[in-house]
Amino acid sequence: MALAVQTKGLTRVFDAKRKFLRRRKPENGEPAGPVTALDGVDLEIRDGELFGLLGPNGAGKTTLIKILCTLLLPTSGEAFVAGYDVTKDPFPIRTKINMVSGGETSGYGLLTTRENIWMFSQFYGVPSKVAKPKIDELLHTFGLWDKRDSKVRVLSSGQRQKMNMIRGFVTDPDILFLDEPTLGLDVNASRVIREYVMNWVRGQKGKTVLLTTHYMMEADDMCDRLAIINNGRILAVDTPGNLKRRLKKDTTFRLEVDPLKDTSPLKGIAGVKNFSETSDGGGSVLKLTFILEEESAVSDIMSEVVRQGSKIHYLHKSEPTLEDVFISMVGRSLE
Amino acid sequence: MSETVSPVAVNLRSVWGRAYVRIVGANREPSWIFFEGLLPLLGIAVYVFIYQAFGARAIATLVADPTLSDTARAAAIAAAQANVNALVGFVVLGGTMTAFWMNVLWSMASQLYWEKEMGNLQLYMMAPMSRMSLLGGMALGGIFMTSVRAVTTLVAGVFVFGVSFQLTDPWMLMAVFFATLVALYGMGMMLASLYLLYGREAWNLSALLEEPVFLASGFYFPVRILGPAVAFAASIIPAALGLDALRQLLFPGFFGGQFWLLSVGLELTILLGLCVLFLVLARLSLGYMETLAKREGRLTSRHQ
Ligand SMILES: Nc1ncnc2c1ncn2[C@@H]1O[C@H](COP(=O)(O)OP(=O)(O)OP(=O)(O)O)[C@@H](O)[C@H]1O
Ligand SMILES: [Mg+2]
After folding, report:
1. CA trace torsion B174, B180, B182, B183 (10° rounding)
2. pLDDT digits (tens, 9 = 90+) for B86-106
């Protein structure tokens, strides 16, 4: 089967010091040293797949997408999209791809929604007689028909996001990159977009989507396969079902306790594979999710909690979710 | 895409798509007629009044001069009046061309930088069009949009200040005008890629080009007055050369021709050379800039 995307040892280092003709003055919050955003990524996405990329903030998801969209060069390693090398052959790739990212502010405020989408379609050479009816159809599908002749600057951020999605689909790409496409959308709009993406990939041959998301449910429901990425490295690639099955031998326990002074001893307890902590109720409750290799570890966890003088409010054993897979690999939850 | 589109079609549609924003979008709000069409008349008026005052004084001196015969006096007064008319015409023409210069500085040179901040640049760079189509579309749209404004200023200026032109060689006039525009916007296209490379530092360059160079380019007076060295330096800015040639064609008798920079033919030749030079440089610098930005991660803004 042909590969839509293939990377070999793909590495990207951002080194602020090496910028051309720039006085070296770190911008706000910019790390002083080089940042390795991608670290030897080997990935294969097949033609016709809806592939998900799941990882915490700063994991390197957007960096990977930018390289695949020919907007950023790799520091080392190789990447191929539709069989072409992103470094040597960007133009044939560009005719076959499109990209939409969440929270994008593209377009011109003075143009209408329709005009804006039309303008972007022209950069792909879509004839107006093809583009215009298609834009209208998509405006209906995404519930933006009412806003077709509104100037873009009056659109809400969710409406803008729908417009951006239409921009991505109207050029009929073979490979579509979606970087957190449902970011900030309401439940209904998110559902419409998810369903449209799934039908688009599955209802026709030769369409591939690479999607990043922070929503576990989205990844679980939509994706044929998922890669879990952290600190620029791919930790696992599999179907959501198989990923969850990996944890079948493990047990998941959820606890709610009074805040603990120190959670580090929990990590050392025999039988604990990994755990995540989030505080809730304004810091009055600590939620812990444990992935246990041995169920017997529960008693050690409870005695550690009690030893620190904390109370247990809630304890529950559950089936592993994708979230738990993530916690077991990354050591924190995505929320 | 399912059906392949020829690269020529992609690029022609891209140029039109990008130009559309400026042709349609920019004229959508009628307030431009006042701010960009009529407001420039104020700046023009200042110079017009100064030149008219000088003219009135010169004529008064001529009237009072006892050494002149009546016929000599009449001829001298007529010449002075023609020169004042030419100076006023100079200013109106200069004020009109200013619109193009400002458009090149603030809507061409700094445009890619804006686009990056707005989040459009990455979408442009990701598209299969040639980067020159992007800049070409911006330029065509800018030329159209600015021409509408410039014609408004010109017509209003000619009407308000009563300037009379002499249309000696309309074809040459058209040739010079279009060569000036292409050279100007070619310069803007070249600057656009440099701005992208230098980011915010480039604002200083625009400020420099707006004021001092603006003054030295003779928008409101014949540039030769500043001396041959400045005149020569300023003629790198296509507006200075073009303006000089346009004035020669419209006010041929001005001060006996002593303030002209070069001959019209030579000026047109230089302008055409500048067109080629700037367009080639634009292409090279854009290609270089794109590779560099892709290597350094500067094609997209950080907060995306
Ligand atoms: N242009 C850049 N210059 C310097 N560092 C960068 C640049 N772009 C990204 N980085 C760094 O690379 C790392 C990966 O960033 P990236 O945007 O790929 O993460 P992400 O997985 O998309 O995160 P998020 O979920 O927050 O969108 C981060 O540490 C980031 O600060
Ligand atoms: Mg990201």
Report:
1. 160
2. 888 888 888 888 889 888 888
CB contact under 8 A, A122 and B14: yes
Look at residues A111, A22, A61 and name the one whose alpha carbon lies nearest to residue A214: A61
Q: Which residue(s) pair with A234 in the sheet? A: A229
Whether B192 contacts chain A with CB within 8 A = no
Sort residue A271 into left (φ over 0), alpha (ψ -120 to 50) or beta: left
Domains of chain A: 249-319 (3.30.70.260)
Residue to substitute in A14, A41, A326 for testing ligand 1 pocket (most ligand atoms within 8 angstroms of CB): A14
pLDDT in tens, B247-262: 889 888 777 777 788 8
ipTM of this complex prediction, to 2 decimal places? 0.87
**Element containing residue B86 per DSSP (H, E):** helix B70-104
Q: Which residue has the higher pLDDT, A201 or B103?
A: A201
How far is A309 from B130, CA to CA, in rounded Å?
Answer: 67
Give, for B60, the enclosing helix (H) or strand (E).
helix B40-64
Strands (E) across B3-152 are located at: none
* CA distance linking residue A330 with residue B134, whole number of Å: 43
- Cβ-defined contact of A118 to B2 (cutoff 8 Å): no
pLDDT tier for residue B231 given thresholds of 50, 70 and 90: confident
Average pLDDT of A264-269? 87
